[in-house]
Amino acid sequence: MLLSPEKQYIPMTARLCFDCTNNIAEYEACVMGIRAAIEYKARRLNVYGDSALVIHQIKGEWETRDQKQIPYKAYIKGLIEYFDEIEFHHISREDNQLADALATLSSMFVISQEEELPMIKMQSHENPVYYNFIEEVDGKPWYFDIKRYLQNREYPDSAS
After folding, report:
1. Can you list the positions of beta strands (E) in 38-117?
2. Quick check: 76 and 58 in contact, CB under 8 A?
3. Integer angstrom CA distances of residue 121 from 5, 25, 33, 98, 99
4. Cα–Cα distance between 91 and 111 in angstroms, integer?
5. What confidence score (pLDDT) does residue 65 get?
6. What is the pLDDT of residues 11-62, one digit of tens each?
7. Are 29 and 99 in contact (CB under 8 A)?
8. 32: Cβ contacts below 8 Å, ≥ 6 apart
9. Nearest-angstrom CA–CA distance, 37 and 50
10. Count of CB atoms situated within 10 Å of the CB of 55
11. What angle do CA 147, 129, 136 make, to 5 degrees?
């Protein structure tokens, strides 16, 4: 998930179509996010990840002993050069629920390389969907009489 300084969320997900460990999947996700930030021409980046292993290895605080992880760490070190400033932060899994949801979502689709990927559109609605379809009565909104009563304690002319 990329989050712009203007609080614009840019979700992304990928399905790994090769066998790998959880740690390799975490490295893949980290690379995917960094490369997306490069595509968006970001110059400053804060990377948040819930894999303590990946974050601490990239920061150089932990050794990278697994031979399969060494190329990932080297690749990320090369990507760091694209940024004026980049920081890596470890967060708890509870604070990374959106990333987990995206990972779950990607595992639900079986997609071949030739197929077009499904697009998921997220919207925000401030009112119920039927709100704009409530008809006016005599050119006034449906709640006109209620509002008039609450403001002025005036009943409608047709009230008995």
Report:
1. 44-49, 85-90
2. yes
3. 21, 25, 20, 15, 17
4. 31
5. 92
6. 887 788 889 998 999 999 999 999 999 999 999 999 998 899 999 999 999 9
7. yes
8. 12, 14
9. 18
10. 20
11. 40
108-123 pLDDT per residue, tens? 767 666 776 666 667 7
> Is 89 strand, coil or helix?
strand
- C-alpha R_g of the chain: 26
Rounded distance between C-alpha atoms, residue 33 and residue 10, angstroms: 10
pLDDT greater at residue 128 or residue 8: 8
State how far the Cα of 85 lies from the Cα of 18, in Å rounded to an integer.
Answer: 32
Q: What is the pLDDT of residues 82-96, one digit of tens each?
A: 999 999 999 887 877
Q: Which amino acid is at 81?
A: E
Dist. CA 156–CA 160, nearest whole Å: 9
Q: Sort strands 9-10 and 2-3 into parallel, antiparallel or unpaired.
A: antiparallel
User: Hey, how many other C-beta atoms are within 10 angstroms of the C-beta on 46?
Assistant: 12
Determine the pLDDT at residue 15.
80
What structural domains and CATH numbers belong to the chain?
2-108 (3.30.420.10)
DSSP assignments along 126-147, one per residue: SS-TTGGGPPPBTTB-TTHHHH
How many Cα atoms within 13 Å fall on the side-chain side of residue 159? 9
